[in-house]
Amino acid sequence: MERTRTPARTGHDTAVRRPARRESLLGERFAVFAECLLTGVWIAVAALPLVTYPAAFAAGARHLRRRTAHEAGGLREFAADVRTAARHGWAVGLAGWAALAVVWVDVRAVRAGLPGGPLVGAPGLCALIGAAVAGLRAAAVWEPGASWRVLFAAAGRRTVRDPAGSFLIVGGVVLVACSAWTVPPLAVPVLGAVTASAVAVERRHRAH
């Protein structure tokens, strides 16, 4: 009776059956952090026309969402998102600069010692911070074809109903301000970290 011989496994077969080596958790987190810093540089460049900063943050947030979802996408996709978001986002950017000018006038009135200046300046500053948080939250969920008006209105409601997440974003904005005050070039890559915090806050809000 002949014995059936089992063919010997070659090195090639062993290599095929060997499970794919996954990236370590620390390495993956460091890669995401590095991507955030790079995205901050992209956002700063895209925001140079001044009125395109909402589109720049929206494109940066979408890029980071693709990165954390392990989807393909790079600078070309980011630039395409900036162009799409800027078609109507420039009006949001212009309104943001107008609001900043109004608050600046209020602050100057407070410093000049005008009667009622502090009473007007404090609410104006708080409103500007709230608008900035709502803008970042709107940019964090932007998708091509979405209406900025609808996004901003919904983000405003989330800003009020989710104070914990809003304070986290405020902390990121303060980090950028401190970076710009101490080491101005550092504020550029940190913009990506602020965008990532907005994306994380929105995911946390949906999870709850």
Short description:
The protein is mostly helical and about 210 residues long. It has eight helices and no strands.
Features of the shown structure:
208 residues; mainly alpha; 77% helix; 0% strand
How does this structure look, described?
There is one protein chain. This protein is an all-alpha fold. Helix content is 77%, strand content 0%. It has one domain. The chain has 8 helices and no strands. Helix 4 packs antiparallel against helix 5 (117-140).
Runs with pLDDT <50, length 5+?
9-21
- Report the end-to-end length measured between terminal Cα atoms: 68 Å
The share of residues in extended strands comes to: under 5%
Cα-based radius of gyration, to the nearest Å: 23 Å
Helix segment tally: 8
The beta-strand count equals: 0
